[in-house]
Structure formats: structure tokens, C-alpha cells
Specification:
Nucleotidyltransferase, domain 5; 17 helices; elongated; disordered C terminus
């Protein structure tokens, strides 16, 4: 057992097992306490036993492949003082009065909520309780507070849409450990401003780097809330901007050829007898199936020299042939690919060298401004606007993960994986109406060593005895 037993009162030291029966896949244990002298808590007279009452409770634990059923033999006591008449039933610590489930059931239910793919209904069914009981048990014990801010934090939004006010929630993450510091109901200033200003200024002054995408309100957090910090624009979002722009260019190009094919087909067929399906032209086929040769990093592409028969084109092709065929469709595709690769190479070779990156970035901006391609002229303007924030992403820092400590660039990569957990939880629950419950469950599952405060009369306790 771990320290959660302090909250759930799972330990009884004076219990005796008086009988064990095995029926099918069930092991039935009969428990009782040894006889002892008992005195009335009101008048201190001796109490007399009025016999034993057997009580069957749910204890969903497997032992040696058997499911356990517990039968508690409880004595009923009555005060011998005729003027008092106090009566009481014997109690066991591991099960509360009038409950049919042991406190261990509560512990198992709480543990099951760490699985983001499990719904409250499936958890309740597993432990033989109602879904209302499962939810109330989780909310009773799991009360998670905000983690302290570290000197490097990440922020990002995630689409929740729990209600009209809470369309995009805000995640704050500790860069070093990857643990979510907190989840805010909305990224709107009406939520974020009172939240951040409520954090002591001394704690906010400790923040040195704030990592985000190119959303201006996030960048402005530095000036508003973190006076000693600098903004860091994540390199992933910069590259994502390029790829999205190129992909939109390819999509528009594909639409143009699809329209051409339809017009040509309409000239060959009378409108009343024209088939619904228009065969794919060579251009549309290549742009749809092999656009990845333009969008992927060249260093990640494995080029094959051997020829393979392409059934659609009815000829032998290899990777180089597909690439050349794309460039023949539109010569701009080669320029887009090559200009994109310039930034990929710049982003890779300067990791950990922000001063060298500054010189390279200025040269790269000049190349883009001199190009005739409007996509990269716009990209140069973007690099100028976020110039210093992008350079800050080349700083290296130590991260902790999988029991290891390693150097990593300042990046929002870890928070993107947490965003997926939020979406998984929302999908498994098929919608949530209670944001506080959603927040508690997400933080409980996403943190490595969550600390739960328990019910109002409990003391804070670590869910695990030892951290990773």
C-alpha cells in the first residue's frame, strides 16, 4: 500500500479472518475483531454485546485469481447503565458506516480515472458501482492545485468548447518536466488576467522564458505579467506556417487542374449523359498522391532508384521521376521546395547557437525578400516581425523525462503532446459540462506525481510514494 491509505483509512490492525470459502471464481472471507472489553463513550459504564450481525460488502480486488467477497461479523453493543441506554455497532476502518463498498474500492476507482480512455460509465461498471458514485468519489478526493511556476514555461490553447465561454482553454506547462502547471477555462483576457495577476509577483519574476506560438496575446504576456522573461516563438509553428502556405498553393493548383478536367469532359459528353465520375488526370494524380515530396523535409525522404510500375501512369517510375513530374506540372514547386529547405537547414544547424542563428537568419531574410515568390516574401515579413522571439528558440535547456536528463531546444513540442491528451479525454467522455471535473481529471492523469488534497477533513497526500 502507499500513502493514499492515510486518506482512505484502509488499515485495520486487529481483524481476524474466521472463515474462507471458495465458490466458483469467488473467495469469500469472513472477518471479525477478537472479543474485547468495551466501555460506553457517554457514561463510561461497561457495554454488553447483543450478538453478531453479518454484513456483506463489495471489495473488487483479485487474490490468486479469485474475486474477493468480504463478510463482516459486527457486534452490536449496548450500555449496561439503564439511565444511558447507548447502543452502537462495531466499526471497521476500511469501510464507512452504511456503505456497501470498502474504501479500497474508492482507491481503485480513483486510480482508474488516470486512464484517459476510460469513461465514468466503464469505470463504474468495472467496480460494480453507479457512474454517479464513481464521479462523486473522484471529485471528493482529487483536488489539484496549481504547480509553482518555473523559469521556463510553455503556453498553448486547446479546443474544448465546453460552453460558449470556454471554446479554447489555456494550458500552462513546466518545460523541464513536461507536467501541466494548470489548465484555465479560457484563453480570453477576462480569465487569464485575474489568474496571472493573482500569482505573487516574486514567483512571476522567476520566469525567464515564455514559449508559445505566434499568437500575439501570448507574446504580450511577457510585458504584462513576467517582467524578467523573454518570449520564445516555437520553431515548429514557424515551419508549420511555411508548410501550410505551400500546401494551400498545391491545393489551389489541384483545383485548377480538376476544373480543367471537368471542362474538357463536359465538351466530350452531353450534360444529360455525362458520367458522375471524371477520371483522374496525370496532374491531379501526382499532386494528390505525391505532394509529400514537396512538403516533407528532404532529409527525411528515402529516395529509391529502382523502377516500379505505376498502374495509373502506366509506366516505370522511381522517387526521382515522381519529383521531376511534379516540377514539370508547375516550375514554382521546385522553388517552393528549395526555399523551404533553406529554412529547414538553418533551423537544424543552429540548434544551441543563438548568436550564429542571428547572422544566418538575417541572410535568409534577404534571400526571401529578393525572391519573386509571394509566399516567401510574406514569410520574410513574418521572420522580421518575430525576429528576436524566433532566435530565442535556439537556446538549449535541460529537460527531465523517462528517468533521463538531456539537452533540448526551447520548444512547444511537449505541450503539443499534452494537447492530444486533452482531446482524448474529451472524446472518451463524449462531452463534459463541468469544467472543474474536467480540469482535475486531466491534471491527475497528465502529471507524473499528482498530489491530491482529498476531502475537507483530509491532509494533502502524494498519489505515489516516490517520484520517478
Amino acid at each position: 500500500m502507499n500513502s493514499i491509505t492515510d486518506i482512505l483509512d484502509l488499515v485495520d490492525l486487529d481483524i481476524e479472518i474466521t472463515d474462507i470459502q471458495i465458490i466458483g471464481h469467488q473467495k469469500i472471507l469472513t472477518l471479525q475483531t477478537p472479543p474485547a472489553v468495551r466501555f460506553c463513550p457517554l457514561c463510561n459504564f461497561r457495554m454488553h454485546s447483543r450478538g453478531l450481525k453479518t454484513r456483506t460488502i463489495n471489495h473488487p480486488v483479485l487474490q490468486d485469481g479469485y474475486s474477493l467477497v468480504l463478510k463482516l461479523r459486527q457486534r452490536r453493543w449496548r450500555c449496561s447503565n439503564p439511565l444511558c441506554g447507548y447502543t452502537a455497532n462495531e466499526e471497521f476502518h476500511f469501510v464507512d458506516k452504511h456503505k456497501r463498498n470498502t474504501n479500497a474500492t474508492d482507491m481503485l476507482i480513483i486510480n482508474a480515472f488516470r486512464d484517459l480512455s476510460a469513461s465514468a460509465v466503464s469505470i463504474a461498471k468495472k467496480f460494480g458501482v453507479s457512474d454517479t458514485y464513481a464521479l462523486e468519489t473522484f471529485d471528493k478526493y482529487v483536488k489539484l492545485e496549481r504547480l509553482p511556476l518555473t523559469d521556463i514555461i510553455s503556453v498553448d490553447e486547446v479546443h474544448l468548447d465546453l460552453d460558449p465561454y470556454c471554446k479554447y482553454a489555456l494550458i500552462i506547462q513546466d518545460f523541464y518536466t513536461g507536467d501541466p502547471i494548470d489548465l484555465l477555462q479560457s484563453r480570453r483576457s477576462t480569465s487569464t488576467e485575474p489568474y496571472f495577476t493573482s500569482i505573487p509577483m516574486e514567483e512571476r519574476r522567476n520566469v525567464k522564458y515564455l514559449i508559445s506560438d505566434m499568437y500575439n496575446p501570448y507574446i504580450n504576456y511577457v510585458d504584462k505579467y513576467f517582467p524578467n522573461a523573454v518570449s520564445v516563438v516555437d520553431s515548429f509553428h514557424v515551419i508549420q506556417w511555411i508548410n501550410h502556405s505551400i500546401e494551400m498553393y498545391i491545393r489551389n493548383l489541384t483545383k485548377k487542374y480538376k476544373q480543367r478536367d471537368r471542362e474538357n469532359y463536359e465538351q466530350q459528353w452531353h450534360p444529360e449523359v455525362m458520367p458522375d465520375y471524371i477520371p483522374q488526370s496525370r496532374e491531379v494524380y501526382l499532386l494528390q498522391k505525391y505532394r509529400w515530396l514537396i512538403l516533407s523535409n528532404q532529409s527525411n525522404i528515402t529516395y529509391h532508384n529502382e523502377l516500379r510500375r505505376d498502374k495509373h501512369l502506366n509506366c516505370l517510375m522511381n522517387t526521382y521521376d515522381y519529383e521531376d513530374a511534379l516540377f514539370q506540372i508547375d516550375p514554382n514547386l521546385r522553388e517552393l521546395r528549395d526555399l523551404k529547405e533553406l529554412y529547414i537547414a538553418f533551423n537544424t544547424r543552429n540548434a544551441g547557437h543563438p548568436m550564429d542563428a542571428r547572422l544566418d537568419l538575417d541572410e535568409l531574410i534577404s534571400v526571401y525578400l529578393q525572391s519573386s515568390n509571394p509566399i516567401f516574401i510574406d514569410f520574410a515579413d513574418l521572420l522580421i516581425r518575430f525576429h528576436d522571439y524566433i532566435l530565442n528558440s535556439f537556446v538549449m535547456a535541460e529537460r527531465h523525462g523517462s528517468g533521463k536528463i538531456y539537452d533540448s531546444r526551447l520548444s512547444n513540442g511537449p505541450i503539443e503532446s499534452i494537447n492530444r491528451k486533452v482531446k482524448d479525454l474529451k472524446r472518451a467522455g463524449r462531452g463534459y459540462r463541468n469544467f472543474e471535473h474536467f480540469r482535475s481529471r486531466f491534471l491527475f492523469a497528465a502529471r507524473r506525481n499528482p498530489v491530491i488534497t482529498g476531502s475537507s477533513n483530509s491532509h494533502p497526500v502524494s498519489y505515489y510514494q516516490n517520484e520517478d
